[in-house]
Amino acid sequence: MISRRNHFRRIVGAAPALILLPALAATPVTSAESHELLALGAELEAAALRLADAKQAKAEARARCEVIAPSLPDELILRRDEK
Prior knowledge:
By secondary structure, this protein is an all-alpha fold. It has a domain at 30-69. The protein has helices at residues 4-26, 31-68.
């Protein structure tokens, strides 16, 4: 049940965090942190590219397989209503 009291508790509880957000955004990043973050960003970008390449390769392999795969006989296919 939502009451005014609970609603105001949530607002008052979140207020200190909302006040700190602009202060955190304005703080400068030290050079050691930024080098580490830049290196991590480069690693993540490379990993994202590898993932996209892997997804593309999987889609191509699936398409090749569907072309050459033999069709199944109807007696081997179990329909949902036949369970």
